[in-house]
Amino acid sequence: QVQLVESGGGLVQPGGSLSLSCAASGIIVNIYPMAWYRQSPGKQRELVAAITSGGSRNYADSVKGRFTISRDYVKNMVYLQMNSLNPEDTAVYYCHVENRAYWGQGTQVTVSS
User: In angstroms, rounded to a whole number, what is the distance separating the alpha carbons of residues 33 and 60?
Assistant: First the structure.
């Protein structure tokens, strides 16, 4: 069984930072492409950041330069460091195994003054 559990969401002011964590079990995050997606009310779920098994990363244009995806083999976790947050970043953020039907439950990120 595969489980993905996100944590680290919360309320932050514009310009602030948050770090999200995804604890994985049942898979090794370093041998699968991992990703963060987000979904805001009334919007489609969109890819935010992804990292391949080879370590290459890609980001949505809207977050490039502000967000960083990373992983830790020892802890078997994936992270999303989010800096310079703006209200448009408000969404539920989901951890995902790319090309697989594995999703976490999501963690709410709210950017508001």
Answer: 16
